[in-house]
Specification:
524 residues; mainly beta; Immunoglobulin-like; 7-stranded mixed β-sheet; 34 strands; binds CU-O-CU linkage; binds copper (II) ion
Length: 524
């Protein structure tokens, strides 16, 4: 296996696209063992031509909470996807694709066990697909990549591979039963071949689920429970996003310019759509729901200065909701699509202090994320309990099936040169690569050449092995996305429970996803 993996890495690395990586990293990636500790980005960075604002001068926006239009047996929402212009860089207008014309889109808040129905109307001029990431959703509403919602007013039929999808015209009501625990979910576009550019241009928002178990805990709430969507972008002189699409109209030819095929990185870090913002805080505990909504960028988040005692971050939740017990971190490494729910205790700082959230995997402008300013003392009756939840441990020893998924770049001699592949194959919306039976535990092994954040739809998993050892510090709890590093093998235990049907699993580096690193499975 190791020899095969090394061969795959060598093939991948021999492509000219990899020449940009430092040679030290190439060596590290080809030596099993070294690869396990080396951290870097998979992707190429764009350079903004706009004048960028001074860091920490824009206040942190918090996306608005959507209001239900109806509450019968379900909570009903209506969202219109449209072109809009928003102010991201002070004094400039950025054209976006926006849920209700906003970026991030409005936050939807659901109650566990109470269905939520979101009717999306497509007033854009391109087809869309909406996926609720982390949702336990029936197949018809999961946003299968060719189930297009065509632009309102057109009666055009999609051609090519998309012709086989469940096509809707103008609008579609996505139904979410919400038979799942409290967690930080997000919704975003998932159209085959074009998810990278559409998400980059703004189609992403939070969807939070609350439940009684979590409400009963004395965690920070209300104004002190804030979602943070971290995403990198680049801007041209007029304030428009720069994205190196081969087809800027996002209609015919998928993919990006060769130099960016490993992933698109921006030089501006946005949090909730604002560049390096500042948040004024009380000297109290806050819960932050950190989402890495970047197309390709990984971050290593740290607080500067670190608190004089204890850990900077107390992690209380991951992709799939509360951990069993809190977990302290001095820094957090997060790959695209992962969520970390953390508590930061600003009472460890003095009024007047400023605390910068740094990114140790970035340099220059991307070494900073945002800043907190402690403005006053305040009462705080919140607490982080030692026990948060009970989590059933999936026993990999009880697995009925073990499946392997190799995430590699097609080498120059392969039939799929320059495409990102799973088990040597590019995505085909018609092909089913696995048929797991519901209710049974399976072990899925993810094997990589370079970094690949692997995401599975429908039900979450638990990381059981990483690089021949136990799970890493960021693998705790129920996960739906796992950061698999170069030349690494990660094993997860997964059990599909909810719905029978056809779903996708894929790399959540969106350029890899668009360039075919996706696979279908069908739950039986
Ligand atoms: Cu967040 Cu299949 O995606
Ligand atoms: Cu998903
Ligand atoms: Cu990938």
């Amino acid at each position: 296996m190791v020899a095969a993996l090394e061969a795959a890495i060598m093939t991948a690395l021999s492509r000219r696209h990899f020449i940009g990586l430092s040679s030290g990293l190439l060596v590290a990636a080809t030596l099993p063992g070294c690869a396990l500790t080396k951290e870097y980005q998979t992707g190429a960075q764009l350079t903004s031509t706009a004048d960028l604002p001074e860091q920490f001068t824009v206040p942190l926006p918090v996306p608005r909470t959507a209001k239900p239009t109806d509450r019968d047996g379900a909570d009903h929402y209506e969202i219109t996807q449209r072109n809009a212009e928003v102010e991201i860089l002070p004094g400039k207008k950025t054209p976006i694709l926006g849920y209700d014309g906003e970026f991030p889109g409005p936050t939807i808040v659901s109650r566990s066990q109470r269905p939520t129905v979101v009717k999306h109307t497509n007033e854009l001029d391109i087809p869309v697909v909406v996926h609720l990431h982390g949702g336990h959703t029936p197949p018809s509403s999961d946003g299968f990549p060719i189930d297009f919602v065509m632009p309102k007013g057109t009666h055009e039929k999609p051609h090519g591979h998309a012709a086989g999808g469940d096509i809707k015209h103008g609008h579609f009501a996505y139904e979410y039963p919400m038979r799942q625990r409290a967690a930080t979910l997000w919704y975003h576009d998932h159209r085959m071949d074009f998810t990278g550019p559409t998400v980059y241009h703004g189609l992403a928002g939070f969807h939070l689920v609350h439940d009684d178990e979590e409400d009963a805990l004395p965690l920070p709430k209300g104004e002190r429970d804030i979602p943070l969507m971290i995403a990198d972008r680049a801007f041209d002189g007029d304030g428009a996003f720069i994205y190196p699409a081969l087809d800027p109209t996002m209609s015919e030819e998928p993919g990006v310019e060769d130099a960016y095929m490993e992933g698109v990185l921006g030089d501006v870090v946005l949090v909730n759509g604002a560049p390096w913002p500042e948040l004024e805080v009380d000297a109290a505990r806050y819960r932050f729901r950190i989402l890495n909504a970047s197309n390709a960028r990984r971050y290593r988040l740290r607080l500067d200065p670190a608190p004089s005692s204890g850990h900077a971050f107390t992690q209380i939740g991951s992709d799939g909701g509360l951990l069993a017990r809190p977990s302290g971190h001095d820094d957090i490494i997060t790959a695209p699509a992962e969520r970390f729910d953390v508590v930061i205790d600003f009472s460890k700082y003095a009024v007047g202090d400023t605390i910068t959230m740094r990114n140790d995997l970035g340099d220059g402008s991307t070494a900073n994320v945002m800043r907190f300013r402690v403005t006053r003392k305040a009462s705080d009756d919140s607490e982080v309990p030692r026990e948060l939840s009970q989590i059933e441990e999936l026993d990999p020893g009880a697995a009925t099936v073990t499946r392997e998924f190799e995430f590699t770049l097609g080498g120059p001699t392969s039939d799929h040169s320059g495409m990102w592949l799973i088990n040597g194959k590019p995505y085909d919306p018609e092909r089913i690569d696995a048929k797991p039976r519901r209710g049974e535990i399976e072990v899925w092994r993810f094997i990589t050449d370079v970094h690949h954040p692997v995401h599975v739809h429908l039900d979450p998993f638990q990381v059981t092995r990483r690089g021949g050892r136990g799970p890493g510090p960021y693998d705790k709890g129920w996960k739906d996305t796992v950061d698999v590093r170069p030349g690494e093998v990660v094993e997860v235990a997964i059990r599909f429970a909810d719905y029978a049907g056809k779903y996708v699993m894929h790399c959540h580096n969106l350029e890899h996803e668009d360039m075919m690193m996706m696979s279908n499975f069908e739950t039986l």
